[in-house]
Design a protein that fits this description.
Length: 304
């Protein structure tokens, strides 16, 4: 049975609340074994940049991909939080004056505005490190082999060949606009790599075979491209109050996007095609994949 749009958004919202609660627990002031102290100012900056009521789409994808294949929901919740730590670190650093120079994020002051630049850098560094702590910890009840797969996959999705490399290409693109293939590479790295990991991680958690793992990985790649297209369209079409951050900044900085290069009509048609391709990849799973298929539609149709 297909979940209605209202039911899907309620399901996503409930998942976000659970993720928020687990993140708050993980980012408490209580030290873990071998930690010496958790400095209060640093922890406050980390919490400001993480506990902000976002949609928690990436943890949701980890959890739903794992559930599709029979994975442990408690493990998936922890891995989803690890991924969210990486995502939030990237937002904190992307907002810095030396990068995208944003003053607001989801309707609140960015970390460097609420605290200072040094605190924002350290908060991002700490969140990135903590992500791998969460995966490796005994509380994440997976075989060592699966933990190694998750650490390797997340490292490559996050680093120079993934998200961080994509941000580097994005900054360079402000001075030398890439062609269509270059933009696609940039976006697949900066945005798509973590979404791809989210889907593939569910398969790793569930101990799925390589065929199903590849199927979910490709699904993640498709929705990653769709997510960035939708984001670029929102930057052109949405208002700042709805989006929770400044709009029109891509054009103002001369940033290379497929919307700028190919136009909004082309981008909307491509977004629709990517969504259908992603949905079709999950037909193999039948009705069990309804929630993930609706997630693909949600990504394409979101307003913020």
């Amino acid at each position: 049975m297909t979940i209605s749009t209202v039911s899907f958004e309620q399901h996503l919202g409930e998942s976000a609340k659970r993720t928020e609660a687990l993140l708050a627990s993980l980012l408490s002031g209580n030290c873990l074994p071998d930690e010496i102290a958790r400095p209060a100012p640093l922890l406050a900056a980390m919490r400001h940049g993480t506990l902000d009521g976002g949609k928690r789409l990436r943890p949701f994808l980890v959890q739903e991909s794992s559930a599709l294949l029979g994975g442990d929901p408690q493990v998936a919740a922890r891995v989803g939080c690890a991924l969210e730590c990486v995502h939030c670190y990237s937002l904190i650093h992307d907002d810095l004056p030396s990068m995208d120079n944003d003053d607001t994020r989801r309707g609140r002051p960015t970390v460097h505005r609420a605290f200072n630049e040094a605190s924002a850098i350290l908060a991002g560094d700490s969140l990135l490190t903590y992500a791998f702590d969460i995966i490796a910890a005994p509380e994440t009840r997976l075989a060592d082999r699966q933990k190694i797969q998750l650490v390797l996959s997340l490292s490559r999705a996050s680093g120079m060949g993934g998200m961080a490399g994509g941000q580097s290409l994005d900054l360079a693109a402000e001075n030398s606009a890439p062609d269509e293939a270059g933009i696609q590479t940039l976006q697949a790295m900066k945005t798509g790599a973590l979404l791809r990991f989210a889907c593939e991680a569910g398969a790793i958690i569930a101990g799925a075979d390589m065929e199903d793992r590849q199927r979910l990985r490709t699904f993640g790649q498709k929705i990653g491209l769709a997510y960035q297209l939708a984001d670029d369209l929102l930057d052109v079409k949405a208002d700042a109050a709805t989006l929770g951050k400044a709009t029109g900044k891509d054009a103002a900085r001369g940033k290379a996007t497929l919307v700028a290069l190919k136009g909004t009509d082309w981008a909307e048609e491509r977004l629709s095609a990517l969504t259908e391709e992603a949905i079709g990849l999950l037909a193999h799973f039948g009705s069990r994949a309804n929630t993930l298929q609706q997630t693909a539609r949600f990504i394409a149709e979101r307003k913020s």
